Amino acid sequence: MRRLPFYTSLVAAILFPCQVFPTSTLYCEFDNNNCIDGLAQSTSSFRLQNISIPLSFVYSFDAGRSPQDGKSSIKVGYWLQYDSDVIRNQLHDSPSINRTTEFGLRLLNIRGWIGGHHHGCKAVWGPQCSQSLKSYLQQSIYNLSTSKLPYESALETVLKSFIDNPDMSIEGCPSKMFLAVDIPTTPFINETSSIGKPNNIQIADPGNPFCPSRTTYLPNTTPDQQAMQIVLGIAARSPTYGSESLHGPQDVDVDLVCTKAPKHIPNEVWPGGPGGDDGHDDHDGQYANPSMPAYNPFLGNRATVVDAFDFDSDYDFDDDEEADEDCPSSEI
After folding, report:
1. Segment 305-331 mean pLDDT
2. How far is residue 46 from each of residues 54, 141, 325, measured CA to CA in Å?
3. What integer pLDDT is reported at residue 100 of this predicted model?
4. What is the reported pLDDT for 208?
5. Residue 194: predicted pLDDT
6. Phi, psi of 272 (to 5 degrees)
7. What is the dihedral of CA 56, 57, 63, 65, to 10 degrees?
8. How confident is the model at residue 327 (pLDDT cuts 50, 70, 90)?
9. 233, 254 in Cβ contact below 8 A?
């Protein structure tokens, strides 16, 4: 099998990782889109085939003034944490198909409870939507990989096609689920192979608050509103363009994770729960908040990072030195 070129975005993530910053010396200004000092933060896990350990998805948001117009807004950030050595060892002997693994984030404009199967998504919209969405993504990525149309990142390409067709219907899911300006994705694993040679596994360094995968600003949004909003993480391990064909959609590895920050809000803060005064919801746990603005991101272009460490979400950064405007780089 011929070896494919490695895409620019992931090369940048691997060749220019960030330095590890001690949490006791730096803080992040709200208008710095290359880091985030989270007002609230949560960690959830997801899994991929051929990797025995769970991978962690960290979602965080901060509150302040928009760097664009000075109005109250929210800065959302996310990053992934995992053991790169374990992943590399386990993928080293996996079937020889060139693949890229990506992670995408969709801010749902839905509030409700999280929990149940599919890493918390069942409580958001019921079991049917999660399974339908996963199957739809698998089929769409498989169709793309067999179409002979050129692409760089399969998940990113498929999600872009969803955005271009916002009226598409997925069984059991909310209408206009993919009505969005953008759904940012980040490639973080690339697998290439050649006949007679071991697989070449390239993995971006895990993330942290000082150099997250992406940051996004949500204008005219309060912390109370954002604390109730659910976000959807989508992980996909897909064939790269020109790679050997898969046997079918079931060979496309897709996983979903739903979360919010903080994960659980006491009833005294949110009386009656998501459904109203009686705590019941007529929409399988979903509740569209009409006051939430359209998703209007200003994307930070940072593409993952540093050796993971346990971030203390209660740490007070106020007396510390401000983090650099850009993440320092060094070759590995």
Report:
1. 36
2. 6, 19, 31
3. 95
4. 95
5. 72
6. 80, -5
7. 130
8. low
9. no
pLDDT given for residue 113 in this prediction: 84
- What are the C-alpha distances in Å from 133 to residues 85, 100, 106? 31, 20, 13
The number of angstroms, rounded, from the C-alpha of 306 to the middle of its chain's C-alpha atoms is: 17
The mean pLDDT value for 211-220 works out to: 90
For residue 115, how many other CB atoms are within 10 A of its CB?
A: 15
Q: Tokens 């209408």 appear where? A: 175
From 228, 212, 219, 211, select the one nearest 297 (Cα to Cα).
219
pLDDT band at 328 (very low <50, low <70, confident <90, very high): very low
Q: What is the 3-state secondary structure (H, E, C) of the chain?
A: CCCCCCCHHHHHHHHCCCCCCCCCCEECCCCCCCCCCCCEEEEEEECCCCCCCCEEEEEEEEEEECCCCCCEEEEEEEEEECCHHHHHHHHCCCCCCCEEEEEEEEEEEEECCCCCCCCCCHHHHCHHHHHHHHHHHHHHHHHHHCCCCCCCCHHHHHHHHHHHCCCCCCCCCCCCCCCCCCCCEEEEEEEECCCCCCCEEEECCCCCCCCCCEEEEEECCCHHHHHHEEEEEEEEEEECCCCCCCCCHHHCEEEEEEECCCCCCCCCCCCCHHHCCCCCCCCCCCCECCCCCCCCCCCCCCCCCCCCCCCCCCCCCCCCEECCCCCCCCCC
Contacts of residue 31, Cβ cutoff 8 Å, sequence gap at least 6:
64, 65, 67
Whether 267 has a pLDDT exceeding 80, the answer reads no
pLDDT of residue 326: 54
The answer to whether 94 and 50 are in contact (CB under 8 A) is: yes
Segment 241-256 shows an average pLDDT of 92
From the centroid of its chain, how far is CA 184?
8
Residue 16 has pLDDT above 70, yes or no: no
Q: Strands 55-65 and 72-81, how do they pair?
A: antiparallel
Cα 11 from Cα 324, distance rounded (Å) = 22
- Rounded CA separation 280/185 (Å): 34
